[in-house]
């Protein structure tokens, strides 16, 4: 059963190829169904492999399937292989599951779009790449998937590329990711240099046995973290994610909420032996970067008016939580939060897509309001997602966020305080969003209350309506998952901690041991819930009951002017530096190569004089040669 | 006349052969008429045959004379073909010299 | 003073005179005749060294056939123009280098001989004796050629056949080539010949064989071209 692991990426690959060659002919909606079925097939295969793994004993749950030898080159042999262990199968399960739901949703969302088949080509390719990423048995297959998802992200963000802004957003995403990829590549080189292989098995064995020096492990961990920062949008490489909202909403849901951005967290979790073998300051750095990012992103989300931008910054913030968990060693909590976040963030994004669809592509929240009467299913599911992310029990988000905060408290109370502040802000801005969109008075008509000077233009023909079943069904399913998802890792009993025992073979050795009284645990949980409710109440008093004035400072609305700073730097001194490098390449390196050619040419021109064409000159040369040879032999032999 | 004890040793023949060879080489490099150049080549071949015969006699080996026979045959064949070429070339341009055939230049 | 010395000096003088004559003669016919002188000198030297058969072959083949071939070509092509020896288009360096190299070769050989005290001997052959008791050199030579060197001998016969074929191909006057180089040449020559004959007839001049021959030759050529093309 476990040997079927190769089927998991094979289905979306087949879907991609079919749609690539015949998508245009299949047309709408058949192309979408082909893609969805491919994804669903992959999910079924994953479930089969999952049960296959369950059937084995806990220590045995690691299956490596090598398809073929990919790169046999001297000292480096890289196989195209899959590693089916609890971590990768968990990732594959929610990637394929949520992916299938989003594919289904897209059939409805992209209805009427001229490039309908092309969308699903990219989506299937994305799912394939993501599965290669999580199932890879060595760093290079993971990197293949890493780059693949980056490329698909670029294609999907700039899907409506005729609009210049969308194309720029796609480029920005790709280039920023590239900076991170540089770190990944260096980590691969370093791993090969120190252990002689880039297989996970060999690398981890080397890290644990001590063959890999602590300095090297630190370097590898740090460089992989650089890659993760790029892919998972942490400080300082997060500025592509808000711009990536230019893509269609299902893209935002799948790529920028549930799957691609979690690749960084996955990577860090996968290489936990390396992090354990290195110096301690790397995990500490990871934790601090994560929690600071979470806080900063939450502050920015408070002042955003685009419905998707709020969710984008929310994603960055929640990813920060996951990195916080990784940094303090609570890998299980990180994965738990990743799974629950996939559920409720995809739900929120798809819900916002439904709102946008119903509002005739209006995305400014100031022009919405009271939509719960017009879109009941969307409203209910969105509220479920809101409660989950705000950390209200018994929804899924509460359990996973609580695990993270507990681990943070155990490691360093300062981290816990910042995490708590972030939770407060999270509840606040999400409630703000819900109240602005679904409650209150409708604001999209002409005679609505005047907005600020930067109000979006009024769309005349807005008649909000509920979305078709293709779009609401995934919403309902995801809402259900967001409700019961907490059951994966209930902290009350040891049997309830299913995820922890399931993932134990992968990271159990390096998992943080919580040394906190159960009384303190309960107290922490109560505090977290209290702060969440406080955030909701404050938001309600501002946006629902209109008791307090809104606080949305300009600096937050402009995201701390980070984008502008980067642009100024790269455009100004950065550009000078780059031009200098390019000039160096042109003059020195190209010049050296061209210079060799020029030298050979001029030498040839010199020697060409001897090729006069005159037979007698040639005869002279030959005679001279004869005399020289004769002289050489005669002098050697006689004297 | 004090030439009573002067004997002709094989070395004399060898020196003579060398001189004729050298003269042939000089002639080949100096003359431009293709026919005269060919004749200088014949001079060189003859010098070589003289040397071969001298050595054959010195070393009491008939192989030298056999080689002379083959040199003769090859010289004859070479002259036939070479003159054929010269005829084919000079028929069109009778005043051509070796310097006019200079197409093989780089 | 032995006879051999006298013969050697005489023959050597002939050889050297001939060689120098080949080099410096402006007229190629003179050069050919000088070559004959050298060849005769070499033949005499062969005789002096008991290579009787080779001397005869030298005279018959070299002087009698090869040089005659040279003279044929010279006369046939009319290339007996005088070459201007005063100029050297390739620069003075060519002549200087030629002289230097020529003397260099001679000097090297002389030096090699001198280093062995003018003996220059190798090992005597054990089984290839030049002179057997009572047998003339031609018998010994014949035996060697047909036993030890028979393979080379057969190859040289093949070589001769190939050379003859090559010469036939090279020297053939191909009508097609003429046509390519100068299309209509045969036709034009025929026309010119005819006009000359007609002019002469009108002028009352008796057409002598020359023009008629021209016309006939042109007609023959035109017919040949047709045949070859067909």
Rg over alpha carbons of chain A: 29 Å
SSE arrangement of chain C, N to C: HHHHHHHHH
Please identify the structural class of chain A as seen in this structure.
mainly alpha
* Shape by Cα distribution of chain A: globular
Largest sheet entry of chain C: none
Main sheet makeup of chain A: 2 strands, antiparallel
Radius of gyration of chain C, Cα only, in angstroms? 27 Å
β-strand amount of chain C: under 5%
Structural class of chain C comes to: mainly alpha
State which percent range the strand residues of chain A make up: under 5%
Oligomer: heterotrimer
- How much is the average pLDDT of chain C? 81
Mean pLDDT of chain A: 87
* Cα distance spanning the termini of chain C: 73 Å
Task: Describe the overall structure.
- The complex is a heterotrimer of chains A (639), B (106) and C (230).
- Helices cover 71% and strands 3% of the residues of chain A.
- Chain A is built from 25 helices and two strands.
- Chain A has helices at 7-26, 30-54, 86-109, 116-135, 139-157, 164-195, 200-209, 214-231, 240-243, 249-258, 263-270, 272-277, 281-301, 307-328, 331-358, 376-390, 396-411, 413-438, 469-484, 498-502, 504-507, 518-544, 554-557, 562-608, 615-638, and strands at 63-73, 76-84.
- A two-stranded antiparallel ribbon of chain A has the order 1-2.
- In chain A, β1 and β2 form a beta hairpin.
- The longest helix of chain A is centred in the C-terminal third of the chain and has 47 residues, at 562-608.
- The termini of chain A are far apart.
- With 106 residues, chain B is an all-alpha fold.
- Chain B is 73% helix and 0% strand.
- The radius of gyration of chain B is 18 Å and the shape is elongated.
- The N and C termini of chain B lie far apart (61 Å).
- The mean pLDDT of chain B is 87.
- Chain C is mostly helical.
- Helices cover 75% and strands 0% of the residues of chain C.
- Chain C has nine helices and no strands.
- Chain C is elongated and about 85 Å long.
- Chains B and C meet through α1, α2 and α3 of B and α1, α2, α3, α4 and α5 of C.
